[in-house]
Amino acid sequence: MNLTPTxxxxxxxxxxxxxxxAISDLxxxxxxxxxxxxxxxxxxxxxxxxxxLATFANLWGELQVHPVAASLGGTDPIAxxxxxxxxxxxxxxxxxxxxxxxxxxxxxxxxxLRSVTAPPVGGATTWADATSxxxxxxxxxxxxxxxxxxxxxxxxxxPRFRHEMEVRMGSEMADRVVQQFGDGSLHPVIAAHPRTxxxxxxxxxxxxxxxxxxxxxxxxxxxxRLFGFFDEANQFEHxxxxxxxxxxxxxxxxxxxxxxFGTSRRELHRCxxxxxxxxxxxxxxxxxxxx
Length: 291
Ligand SMILES: [Fe+2]
Hints:
Blueprint: E1 2-5, E2 12-15, H1 25-38, E3 40-43, H2 50-57, E4 63-64, H3 67-71, E5 78-83, E6 107-117, E7 125-129, H4 130-140, H5 142-148, E8 152-155, H6 158-169, H7 171-181, E9 185-188, E10 190-192, E11 199-201, E12 208-211, H8 216-232, E13 235-238, E14 245-249, E15 253-256, E16 266-276, E17 279-280
Bound molecules: fe (ii) ion.
């Protein structure tokens, strides 16, 4: 197995391992350790089917059905991300940096994508490192970072997510999703990684709406500033080719997929594994589930 990290150490490309064959305990341990070190691992030209994708994701724990799909009766842990001329991306502009379903009280630990069809141009996915975002915040304004340690932020699905649901499933289903998840969840602004204990900035432009206890204006200003640290943080971009597999750490990273591939066909299959609530840095308590 050959591992080539980026110059920053955030993100690495792995070759010399066939994820479609039985993965030895030794390789599995090395892959998990590499993910904890680098946050995102790209495995080019693997050509897995969905069963092999699920087996690979299972290295990190129990497979998870997306809570929105589960609330609508879904049981399949494999989700399909599909666009073509008849199914353009629901949001007109680029998708925002986000942690998958952070509006839920628990988030997935790890997500894996495999590319089935890649557009000839565009359609890359970019990940940003929440650990280096926090380091930048601390270096820029240590006082603010200390203040944020005590604070929680509300994550909710918001109008963009509702619009996506409406385009995909119709307004009745979208209403049901908003009814079930619209209240969102409170998460610590500065969290500790559940496996490594490393501190990270846990807000994202996709789902974080409000910092609990602040006025709306103060919260909006502060969140915009915090989102800016992800733009400056270490990033990893993957330009998809059919067969590629990428696994990432949902706690440590945020990701986005620009809608820059026109009417080309793009199909990715996703599987997530493990689930846990973001942990408040410096404490052993997690926030109560917000009903
Ligand atoms: Fe996502």
